[in-house]
Here is the input.
Amino acid sequence: MYHSNYLANTLRSASLDNDNAVFAYLKSGTEVSYKELFENAEKTAKVLINAGVEPGDRVAVQVVKSITTVELYLGCILAGGVFLPLNTDYTATEVEYFLTDASPKVFVCDQASESLMSMVAMKAQVANLLTLDHTGEAGSLFELRELEKAGFEGVQRAPEDLAAILYTSGTTGRSKGAMLSHGALAANALTLAEHWQFSANDRLIHALPIFHIHGLFVALNITLCAGSSLYFLNRFNLDDILDCLPKASVLMGVPTFYVRLLKHAGLTKERVANMRLFVSGSAPLLSETHDAWKQKTGHAILERYGMTETNMNTSNPYEGERRPGTVGLALPGVEVKILDPDSGQSVATGEVGQIHVRGPNLFTGYWKMPEKTAEELSEEGWFLTGDLGVLDQDGYLTIVGRSKDLIISGGYNVYPKEIELVIDESPNVLESAVIGVTHPDFGEAVVAVVVAKENCQDEAGIRALCADALAAYKRPKSIVFLDELPRNTMGKVQKAKLREDYAGLF
Ligand code: MLC
Ligand code: AMP
Here is the structure.
């Protein structure tokens, strides 16, 4: 079954002989078996093919998280399509860019925004618009799927064929589509499932969004590869997570999950007695959070390090010392080296430099950006991550900063340039500098430092521009006005000074 479709075969193998096993426990009390999951995926594949999807065609998706969305992802892989998930928070302006850049054959949007999105799709010349509602049980995609019969072998796809494109913001303000192959996704999922000792007995609490690699590939693909089960939550909600903890065995989250859980009186050693693993990633987990968690629950959170372009690169050990503040050791098959940015030579152990990674987990390149790809991905297969790090004598990697101008807020990436470009459109703004400031809940929060024209401090106008153009998580949590931006002798804005000046804002 699915033998000729590389990723689908990898994701299906573990559950084939145990078809009635539960894939997902839904909040409604419904259980979804592996059989149902893949039968629905097969039906979805037929719908996509009927809509014209041919091998390598992109299928863009901006819908609320539901099991139907998971089935759509698997159906797209089976149909030989390239899955292109979009943050549900993206505005029409943002979506138009992705559709225009990726030229998908089909766009599946939320039924509630169908009229707006049909205009966006038309502008981007996307011919086929399908819909799903927030329950995943209504909308044209669902209706068409219900007309199909299960039974589909999957379109032939080899390890090097593309399975997904996920956009990551760029330093210039223009998002880049990272092209991920069947082989890269399969390799990483299998490695992680083994490394973190997943089995059919595991029950993972899934509360992450499924439009980013953390929720989509790390959490879902590992579960599928191991034939484990999910507590499938549509969004992060403290009470739901606390309800699941006594029945579950694994939680995966961004640091904000752990910070919020620690504040809840319901988090006790007794409640997590059946848990075997807590994984954190996508943003730095503070040592204090790691220590507080250990004290309160008896568990050491396992921190790992990845990127959209690379999947997962390093992980603290499953068995062995999990060192707070580090992202652990290179995963099997992955190489990590630290280079001096000026000389391009390896730095000595214990010294800081640019992190480069290589392995079967890496992306193929940026969609339609060969020059950008060549800048960051060498012919020898090394990827320049843009993160600064240090390796210790035992091979543990610590991330100490970023050479890329990036803010990570609650696990979401925000590139300042994109926000600055929007703010600078205001007729009342001379210039702006967007920075990340330490935030107790989100780790970092977006702050805009603005120089107004002729003293016209139009905060409301700036907020309106941001609301129109940017997803909510990108919008500044605070806007401050200055007479002028601090600059160095070269005329470059001193963002480090601004970060220091506003360090205590939240
Ligand atoms: C929500 N808001 C955020 C935000 N999330 N603002 C900044 N940063 C965020 N991360 C906005 C909301 O829109 C709202 O705005 C206000 O902040 C309060 O929201 P909330 O109710 O507190 O947020 P909540 O819905 O609880 O979401 C918080 C969260 C969520 C942490 C659960 O952000 C989340 O699921 N983050 C995970 C992101 C993720 O999966 N990252 C993986 C990327 S992959 P308003 O205006 O309405 O008040 C990757 C690679 C790797 O990085 O290594 O994994
Ligand atoms: P993204 O492009 O959204 O995939 O984000 C990838 C970036 O998230 C990396 O380049 C890192 O800067 C950051 N990141 C991921 N995991 C960690 C972690 N455990 N600690 C620190 N930063 C992390």
